[in-house]
Amino acid sequence: MVKTGMGICIAGLAVSVLSLVPAVVPVGVFPWPVFVGSAIYFPGAFLAFFSSRGKERNQVFNQLRLVRLGFVAVIVIAVTSIMRG
What we know:
The protein has helices at residues 2-17, 32-50, 55-84.
């Protein structure tokens, strides 16, 4: 269950990275894939976190933290491109 949840989280991050592809979201337009990716991420994060036990839960939490940092990076890049564009 943990691997399934992490896979869903990474799929959500991959969807949000699509907001950086100009063919999907033109420059200066609202980056909708970030919000779709977030909607995919949350159920996966809950599944991964609550299906783990003990010390494994801390490891899963650290892995989820890295995925969230990826989301922050995508959001910062998207906002910067909107402000420039």
